[in-house]
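Spend some time on the protein that follows and explain the fold to me:
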Amino acid sequence: MKYKALIVLIFIPFIFACKPENEMSNSPKLEEGSISLIAPNGSEKWQAGTNQLIKWQSKGIDSVKIDYSIDNGASWIFVALNKTNSGSFSWNPVPDTPTPNARVKISDAGKGSIFSISSNSFSITAHPAISITKPAGGEIWYSGTSQQIKWTSSGITGVAISYSSNMGLTWSIITSYTQSNGIYLWENIPACGSGLCKIKIADAADPENYAISEGKFSIIPPTGKSISITSPAGGEVLFPYANYEIKWNSSSVQMVNLYFSPDMGITYNPITGPILNEGKYIWQVPELNSNLCKILIRDADDSSIYYESGGTFTINSTKYLTVTYPVGGEKFTAGDSVTIYWRSAGCNFVSIQLSVSPEGMPRVWNDIVLSTPNAGSYKTAFNAEGNNCFIKVSSAQADGPSDENDIPFEIIKNNSLNKGIISRYK
């Protein structure tokens, strides 16, 4: 009998040790069609604007509905509906509804009578706020000088300050840390030459909590030398191979370099230069697709003096048509053979027309060919005369692109041509 008793005592601990893990845990035992909220369940402090994990256990429930309350459950605010029951939900961001009396409710999306509520209230604390008061927009700051940056904040100890010269597309650090006392002296402002400047102030402990100045301001060189682009100004739509006139104003600048950016100033490619500063330049538009295009003009003798075009413009090469010859200024003889050239995309057939209307009169278009396969060129003869002549090449489709030469050319009389005259002007 002693041996039998000993055997029982030896095996009793082993039996307890082999119990399934879920039976030994402190988790509630769930019945079919039940749910139990795990977090938040009281005393947590969740900051508005942060990402927090709501967790629960359930059994026999496919999808859930999530609500929260800021008044201890007297009323409920919707968070998520018909969420697949995965046992957790990323609440991002926690709403900016500060309260010490917050609770969360998880319900069976199919049966609202099955639910679980936080056992105790938790807190939602205010999102630390930053508001930039200077610059507010419209200011002109000169490179090499010092200016005060001002802001208001709450719940923030230190901040990082950055500036952008391209409306926030890229940022450069001014200081990685300064006390959040509402004022910072920005000394020796760098050469920028832009009217698209912004300031960003971020919580040094939480870079995702930041503010950007509302309006754009300018950073330009000190008085004396200056450049200011007037065209393009932003919003223009240009087409490949077209001749576009870039225009600018300047002071005390002799020679300039011109650059083009397809990505809002992240990279710049040379257009021309150094060239004599005449305030304008005819640029052949490149073939590409972008709505983030900018022009930059720099003093060839002083690289710190430059200016970026204001807003971005667009180059559209998806569907376009640009006449490349004649371009204007040519002199043709009526009846002689001439080949018209153009560049295009998205056009299978084109029509070609000629206008010889006098200067100052509406252009009257006469058909050269109604529809021909788009080969990029067409050989013809001008059976007309005039000193204000234009060629128009159009897609044969009604909604397709078209183009004509910007500067008139001349068609002179052919004394041996006695018939086929469309019209005659001297």
Observations:
- Confidence is low (pLDDT under 50) at residues 1-28, 419-426.
- The first helix runs from residue 2 to 17.
